[in-house]
Amino acid sequence: MSDALIARLAEILGPSGILTDPADTAPHSEDWRRLYRGRTAAVLRPASTEQVSAVLRECAAAGRKVVPQGGNTSMVGGAVPDEDGSELVLCLSRMNRIRDVDAIDLSLTIEAGATLKAAQTAADEAGCLFPLSIGSEGTAQIGGILSTNAGGNNTVRYGNARDLVLGLEVVLPDGEIWHGLRRLRKDNTGYCLRQLFVGAEGTLGIITAAVLKLVPRPREVEVAFCAVPSEAAALDLFTRFHRHDPAAVQAFEYMSGLGMDFVLKHIQGVTLPLAERAPHYALIELATPRPNAGLRDALEMVLEGALEDGVVIDAAIAESAAQRAAIWKLREEHSESQKREGASVKNDVSVPVSKVPQFIREATAACAALMQGIRAVPFGHMGDGNIHFNLQQPVDMDGAAFLARDHEIMDTVCAVVRRYGGSFSAEHGIGRLKPYMMPDWRGGAELDLMRRIKHAIDPAGLLNPGKVLP
Ligand code: MLT
Ligand code: ZN
Question: CATH no. for residue 301?
Fold first, then answer.
């Protein structure tokens, strides 16, 4: 180790708290999508908030930049260090304790490095539910979930990560600790600082622990998988469930026929629970904590009406927890199967729920006009208006040549998003992939305010450089 700072950090963190061998740091230097391959002299692995504080204090004194990293599942390169090797990676995974769970307060106090799955399990063991759910929940960590304001499958009912946090513990760029782990439902005492760090993608401070909101554990859960004739029919089906009982709709996911074909082609052990493939699919999950709520009857009644009206072509209802999981797997393997199919450009966009069908049709046509053979794979959280409008490379095109046109493709999709008053990044955040879009979409007073906040909290620009702000 040539670097005096790294020697000092090794002293603070101890032998199991720092990785410097390139073979060990390599997995922390590349993102899940393999869009970026950076380098770092060290991965710092603190085991306590005090160690995070000491590390940031040293780094600030030396002017060394730090990239916080959770499960490294970012879709936008939000947790990778730069190529020049000067940035250090701060990995929170050793800070993974459950500090407290309270079924009366409906709160869970948990450290940043615990996985989302661990949070869900801790809640379940207390007879509660932590309702955030995303495909990468076995790997993604609470610090990253909050720093990116993750959305996922249950936003339609419970909101995003931002809506599920009561308190935070944060280490600021100069090493000072903000002890904000309050679990109050009412606390009107000035600026809401926790919301400043949620969604900041680690550019303002390091979240080391959080108090999360829990909800009562559902007593009844029903999952159905439907073939539908069009995007508009999928939306029609959502409205029918929502009108019947909005409080029961826990997830409503849309999938295109092509996306499902990729899952069936690339993922082992999955089967379509319907007799025939369809042009579009919808997954509905209903859940309620109320006893004897008759959820199954409600599900069957709405589906029968939709079948009669031609809104649904065919439907399968899960009869067990295993069947529910098998249906969800068809949805959750979308990203992985697209990765195996070849190069893909992701557009994590949102439009008003009522505009989702028109958006999908118009964006598909716009992309087809841009590039012959491009394959649109729209899927995602129709119930909250967030569609992953992913574009797969034409079958016989070179992957790198396709990715070289990513801005052009994203701009084509975003032109349609803009017509509907949507957002160019609904849940994946900005990371390293999308800062270039910020001036166009969030320019003027909004971006100016963001820059002033960044400068006030991190004047030397030490935390997660190159992310979020252009
Ligand atoms: C998902 O919901 O599965 C991911 O956010 C989507 C993606 O791969 O674009
Ligand atoms: Zn998603």
Answer: 3.30.70.2190
